[in-house]
Amino acid sequence: MTGGREPGRQRGSVVIVIAHDECSAEITIEGRTQVVTGAIPKETRRAALDAATAYAAHLGRSVLVNARDANGAWQLIISPTGVVRAAGGSEAELVVRPDTQGRGRGRKIALALTGGALAVLAAVGVGAVWVVRGSDVTGTEVNGGDIEGSGIRLETRAAPPGFSVEAAWRLPTRTGTRPAVAPDGTLAAFVNPDDELVVVGPDGEPAWSAELPLSSSAIEGAPAFTRADGGWGVALTDNATLWRWPAGGGDPEAVELPEDARVTFAGTSPLVLEEADAYVPEGDELTEVEVPSGFGAMLADGDRVLMGVKTGRWTWVGVDGDEGREIVPKAPSGADRPIELLTARSEHTVVLWKADGGGADIVAVHDAEDGSVVAAAAADDDRLTDARWVRGGSLAAYGPVIFDLDAGEARTLDGFTPASAAGGHVYGEVPGDGRSAGVPVAVTGDGDPVDMDADAVRPWGLLDDRAVVIADGDLYALLPE
């Protein structure tokens, strides 16, 4: 497929810096800074996003937003119509292809970032633009010997519950980038200060590295691990190109992206979406995947794509056009009918159900292959507006609902906003006193929150049994307690 962007064309960018007390924020657009305020933190964040949306509407195209608060940062992309998504995101979104009698190209259903990504901005500690604290960044690698007695410590931040400040190793990263951990916990990828993509194993030793074909400042989101050649390759995107490295490294394949296309890594393979059209990369080209009428493509998993319907059904469609059977999710206990397919991953879908006889709606995780119920719990629908899915091992969360996928159990923690999950904990925040930022907590499978230190780092994932965290520009592998 051809017809991408002009070389060198760049999306407009916005910088949002939330004040420590969250009563004000600075928004810098084209070198000019304005200040917005709010009576409560949520109002401040909303005002900042409104300013960015107005700029996108002025340009008539999406803009990249670098948002930062006292605890971390995140990259977002805001469209001229105010649709907000994580840059280089891993969330599945549903753009439904209309019936043949319908008009228009499709209607966007915002799944995880509906209403403005306030939850994303609040999810501190999972950010993408890190504040430089001096220029004395150094790295320490463990090359053999007793890794448990490496002597490396996390000095400037507190460790998250379940892990110690002792680290197996520490490596320097490029400021403004963030790491990724392979789904099976065998590899981590990051960009080093020399603008090289580096992939390491649990011992911190490089498995392979490659010089970046783009500026590290142009990377949208984080590196993403994708299935390739029976192992894990790595993918990166900017606003015009998708790069894919094979498992074990080597030369990357570069795929030019259509104007205003978005790439999701919600599955094990990248899926390129342009309005209601769906594509998968094959070599350095994009191959269009036929989207059935009334469905929308949500994620790619190898040679197939999950297509969903807003009201809860889905199907797997082969890249070769082979359509599988339509999957109707089974009702969880106490449910009447499905309301909405909220999000999806290669193994699971999340569906919102109407409760039988009224009461709070039910959020259920379903097996993506047969629609059976994995776990479900009731939740206030208002708490799901800005919900996002996180998973680490057997624990996962969608908004305030915590799922133990292995045990088949789910619990709701009112007001909880998840940020990441790893090592038997879901990390996030519960509401503060109204004028302060949220209170950081770690939640176990039983749903009980444990308070975290305000400056505690949050894991990006587990590399073997070690928590991968960033502090002051360095990547650490923290040892379990």
UniProtKB/TrEMBL annotation:
The chain crosses the membrane at residues 109-132. Keywords: Membrane, Transmembrane, Transmembrane helix. The keyword Transmembrane helix applies. This is Uncharacterized protein.
